[in-house]
Design a protein that fits this description.
By secondary structure, the chain is mainly alpha-helical. It has 14 helices and no strands. 82% of the residues lie in helices and 0% in strands. α3 packs antiparallel against α8 and α6 packs parallel to α12. The longest helix is centred in the C-terminal third of the chain and has 27 residues. It is globular.
Amino acid sequence: MELWIPITIAAAFFQNIRFLMQKRLTSELSTLGVTFARFLFAAPLAVMLAGTLLAAGQPWPGMNAAFFGYALVGALAQIVATALLVALFGLRNFAVGVTFSKTETVMTAILSALVLGELMAPGGLVAILITVVGVVVMSGLPGRGALATGIFSGAAGIGILSGVIFAMASIGYRGAALALEQGDFLIRAVVTLAFVTTVQAVAMAAWMRWREPGQVRRVARAWPRAGLVGLFGMLGSLGWFAAFALQNAAYVKALGQVELVFTVLTSVLLFGERLKASECLGIALIGFGIIVLVL
């Protein structure tokens, strides 16, 4: 088994835990506050990990202009795409928008070819399309009438745009890791993660001070719980970045759809919810797509 496969699955698992903890924080913090907590507490952990690896003898990977360009694009794109996704929930046709945002993996494949020159094998493209269909089915397709009336709505446009910008973030992270001049995949992933999360923490701190200054203090006071969000967020991001350093970002994002399977299993095992038929079909499609992808 190629190393990027278990790393990606672990990243999806940690991300699922982080989402669960963020959900619990929403009773104390605003949506922006919960998002800020993730970056605020993840950044110092990533910097400490990078320092530990360098002190242990890992070579300094040699940052250059290409690294900074890709990393900055990835860091800021992730913030913007997340904001767009949050904005969808305030729109009338938000379900249509969320459905279109699920095209992120396809967008990643297109941008990977255009920006990084990484073409995909036909089998890989088929696997990606299968997992995307599985994600859309699992998420719950809007009714036929809603889809027909909403396809030209602002929600659809925002959904597509968020998918494109999330794809830009993935390409930025892979491009940054590949641009580093030396070191194995782990140090390149950790250094990229440390830089990106620091940029995101600073950018969001500035935004929060302007838009929701009271939330900054609330995040600081909630550090025992918010710190765990940062820890699992950092572990999940480390997995994504390490996988991006090893493999085409589109393949990584396709395999990463297994996160939705973890989410459904969590809701069933921890909260006693019952599986819907659409969720069972979606899990089957995602599983089949992953099998096609990794074989």
